[in-house]
Structure prediction request, 295 residues.
Amino acid sequence: MSEAAGSKEMTTDTLPAFSRILLVTDFSPWSEAAVPCAKLLAESYRASITIAHVILRDIDFGPNEAVIGTQEEIAELAETLMRRFLAKNSLSESDFVITSGPFGDAIAAAIEQKAIDLVVAGTHGRSGVGKLLLGSIAQRIFNAAPCPVLTVSPRARRSGGVEGKRKILYAPRLSDASLKALPYALSLAKTMDAELLLVHVLESSELIAQQGRINEDLSEMLPPEARGWCRSNNLVLTGDPASEIVRVAAEYGVDFIVIGAERVPGGPLDRINVPLTTAYQIVAHADCPVLRVRN
Prediction:
């Protein structure tokens, strides 16, 4: 099915919505950077927020790190830090989960148990009882989650410009998952009354002759019904896809980037950075939150 054909089957009533958000934290300042974004989405979608912390095992840490203390002491410390985190961020009424075990399994279990449809996490951080590292644990969150994952960099600008002036950047054809990401981009644009930027990057200037056709294809991606309410702008560029998307997001003051991304295979790659992927480069360098939707 082509992207244009698939878009014609979407309507406002069938766009995805978020009703249960899982905010993953290690209690560090880096993970706190994701709180305002989780709150904004919860308010926009009238969703609930569950806070999750995974007590990591020795194997989840680097070779020179270890979990210090008994299991009971670590669990008690984690609960104390959780309650402080909730109070500090005005989340005292939110549900929370403290769990342990293999990280990916623990996150997947929490998502299933709470029927989560969006995970929000900081891109990196360190603390005495855990860590979220871009390319390591943050990547494992994405690999484990069957739902979309929103990653928030500590340097991310706070979303929330003048009402009606927000911008969502959707980058089609970065991967086979692009089509699946489109409904989420439209949902954010609809819910937040935002302009939708559809950005396609050609990797070679020799392909510039295709610009007109690609621009038409981008316009046809929007469902007919959405064209009545969705303010959109198409950009066809040349260059490195990740660099151009990051640049455009900064230049236009984009609030959210929405991309399709592939799951990184398990094993050694599950624990290390994956700097060669376009999705990784966007998450690593964007100055706004990035919503990744798995194929």
In short: The chain has two domains: 20-152, 158-294. The radius of gyration is 19 Å. The longest helix spans residues 71-88. Residues 20-152 form a domain with the Rossmann fold fold (CATH 3.40.50.620).
